[in-house]
């Protein structure tokens, strides 16, 4: 255990390190939160893979290089430089998404150990060195960075947990398993046998991760309580959910932590991407009365077949619509679709565009979902994997989106779904968008600084509680 300072010097701003895995979709909201905490008075360093240093500079915080997993995605997964085994797993995962929901989730279950708990000893050594260098008062760690959470637990260092996905990524009861959706959208209903197979795989991962956590803790003679159930190990001080607090979400068992539902991590002001994108939007508006944004995230943009089908479905089903497509490495293959009503780009300024389009088609990723809610943009959701099924269920139940099964898709139903979304009255969107108006990164930063500062203020040793 690293010896703590029992109290912070009077009047000194707290020093905080925000740790992100090397995934663009995680680093983006965490960097926004880091900037908000700096603005709120903390002194913040953002720790991630070196390629994410510009994110730290963009929000005005310090940067520390720290790579917590060999797997990586700096913005477009397929073109990110990574090891042969990581690239092989990515291709296997993409292939599984063609076979439906359970096949994709089972592929992720098979990859979980390599993806989420690679080289915990190295991560612990690097965190120890970082702590000796910066001496932060506490950390914010991405919940899916399990080696970091385990290291902070074993070292007795205080931390807050940031959940980048659906709140049930943190298992809420003993029979809930990481990797099994808590609920399914109407369009995706796996057979009972397939669900039973998925639950068996998830339960086996739960046992294996917990045993591995205990093994690492024993090897380092960690003077703290055993980690317990690995996937449920979070801060006992504060857990931030980058998600709205829908009334039907399951309650988490009390651990003494303050659960903060921040709604979203969208900055109040989005930087202007430049005249080129302004010209794109004007051109599309002149060709079509409505504009639809299609973006399947940094991994699933590799599904060029689905992107092609979506463009054709929107153009044929909504004659007055134009389309922007975030195509990643599929952009060259889809360039033939470009024309007066279609703009294909490798990457797009998504948050900026959401204020300027009428509908978004996305994969149910947490960032896309929360950004749509914050901007009041209705969505067509096509969940492929991970927590996307749970998010699609919530979006559908809140009448924020329509969901279709991407493994059984045809252009006609895409066109019908987008037409229906365009005809909806805005009331459903405005209700939830209004509820999020006072939340977001600045709200999270203020509440998090208070929650993490309270024990320090009363003189409690900063590492006196295992798990943060």
UniProtKB/TrEMBL annotation:
Pfam families: UDPGT. Coiled coil: none annotated. Keywords: Transferase. The keyword Cytoplasm does not apply. This is Glycosyltransferase.
């Amino acid at each position: 255990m690293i010896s703590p300072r029992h109290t912070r010097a009077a009047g000194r701003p707290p020093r905080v390190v925000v740790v992100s895995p090397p995934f663009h979709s995680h680093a983006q909201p965490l960097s926004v939160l880091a900037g908000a905490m700096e603005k709120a008075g903390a002194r913040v360093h953002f720790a991630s893979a070196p390629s994410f240093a510009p994110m730290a500079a963009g929000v005005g915080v310090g940067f520390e290089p720290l790579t917590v997993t060999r797997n990586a995605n700096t913005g477009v997964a397929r073109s990110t430089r990574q090891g042969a085994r990581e690239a092989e797993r990515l291709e296997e995962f993409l292939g599984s998404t063609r076979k439906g929901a359970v096949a994709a989730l089972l592929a992720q279950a098979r990859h979980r150990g390599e993806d989420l708990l690679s080289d915990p000893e190295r991560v612990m050594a690097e965190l120890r060195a970082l702590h000796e260098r910066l001496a932060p008062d506490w950390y914010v760690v991405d919940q899916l960075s399990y080696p970091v959470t385990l290291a902070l637990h074993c070292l007795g260092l205080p931390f807050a947990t940031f959940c980048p996905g659906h709140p049930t990524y943190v298992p809420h009861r003993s029979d809930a398993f990481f990797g099994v959706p808590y609920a399914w959208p109407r369009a995706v209903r796996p057979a009972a046998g397939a669900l039973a197979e998925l639950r068996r795989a998830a339960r086996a991962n739960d046992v294996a991760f917990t045993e591995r956590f205990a093994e690492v803790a024993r090897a380092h003679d960690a003077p703290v309580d055993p980690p317990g159930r690995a996937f449920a190990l979070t801060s006992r001080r504060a857990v931030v959910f980058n998600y709205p607090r829908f009334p039907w979400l399951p309650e988490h068992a009390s651990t003494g932590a303050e659960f903060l539902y921040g709604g979203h991590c969208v900055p109040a002001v989005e930087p202007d991407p430049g005249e080129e994108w302004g010209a794109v939007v004007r051109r599309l508006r002149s060709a079509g009365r409505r504009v639809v944004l299609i973006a399947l995230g940094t991994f699933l943009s590799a599904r060029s077949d689905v992107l092609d089908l979506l463009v054709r479905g929107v153009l044929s089903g909504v004659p007055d619509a134009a389309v922007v497509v975030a195509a990643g490495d599929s952009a060259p293959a889809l360039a033939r679709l470009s024309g007066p009503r279609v703009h294909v780009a490798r990457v797009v300024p998504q948050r900026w565009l959401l204020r300027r389009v009428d509908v978004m088609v996305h994969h149910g990723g947490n960032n896309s979902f929360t950004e749509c809610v914050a901007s009041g943009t209705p969505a067509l959701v096509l969940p492929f994997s991970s927590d996307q099924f749970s998010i699609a269920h919530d979006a559908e139940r809140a009448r924020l989106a329509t969901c279709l099964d991407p493994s059984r898709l045809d252009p006609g139903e895409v066109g019908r779904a987008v037409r229906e979304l365009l005809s909806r009255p805005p009331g459903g969107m405005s209700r939830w968008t209004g509820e999020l108006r006072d939340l977001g990164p600045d709200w999270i930063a203020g509440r998090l600084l208070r929650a993490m500062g309270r024990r320090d203020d009363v003189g409690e040793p900063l590492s006196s509680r295992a798990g943060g």
